[in-house]
Design brief:
Blueprint: E1 7-11, E2 15-21, E3 37-43, H1 45-55, E4 59-67, H2 70-81, E5 85-92, E6 99-105, E7 108-114, H3 134-145, E8 150-152, E9 157-159
Parallel strand pairs: 1-4, 2-6, 4-5
Antiparallel strand pairs: 2-3, 6-7, 8-9
Length: 161
């Protein structure tokens, strides 16, 4: 029996997460809290799922947008290192890659996000040059064009055609 790899097209965000760990408490306005540790991870909901599925053996293609900056290069390298096809990743010289700072004190967390390039994603980023069968690419683009709006939860932005 020939086993066929499942294929996934992940469309969305990839950014950097800065995790400040081991805080005694979350800081209030005008207060400083010292972290016991700092981790820099590649995050973004779609980027995280794409990397995880690829590690599980799925053939994953990613469509998204990063800035032409070190954070964007780091995110792109992390996707590629996980085996994700990044040919649909737009490198945008006019934007900066998004970053989320995560402050962690025990079981409490606070998040601050700069959406950056994720907020600049557009329907045109998904195009027929993706590594898909032409009929599948046309069907996908047709469905995207029929969407009334694009919700970008992390970016807090709504695009209406």
């Amino acid at each position: 029996m020939v086993r066929v790899r499942k294929r996934v097209l992940a469309i969305g965000d990839v950014n950097l997460d800065l995790l400040f760990l081991g805080l005694e408490r979350l800081p209030s306005a005008e207060q400083e809290s010292l972290a016991q540790d700092l981790q820099v991870l590649v995050g973004g909901q779609t980027g995280t799922v794409a990397r995880a599925l690829s590690r599980l053996g799925w053939a994953v293609s990613f469509v998204g947008r990063v800035g032409d900056d070190e954070y964007g290069r780091t995110a792109s390298r992390a996707l590629a290192a996980a085996g994700v096809d990044t040919s649909g990743l737009v490198i945008d010289p006019a934007s900066r890659t998004g970053v989320t700072a995560v402050l962690s004190a025990g079981t409490q967390r606070a998040y601050v996000t700069f959406a950056g390039s994720a907020a600049q994603a557009r329907r045109a980023d998904v195009n027929a040059s993706l590594p898909l069968a032409p009929a599948l690419a046309r069907m996908l683009i047709g469905r995207i064009e029929r969407v009334d709006s694009i919700e970008q939860g992390d970016a807090g932005k709504r695009e209406t055609p």
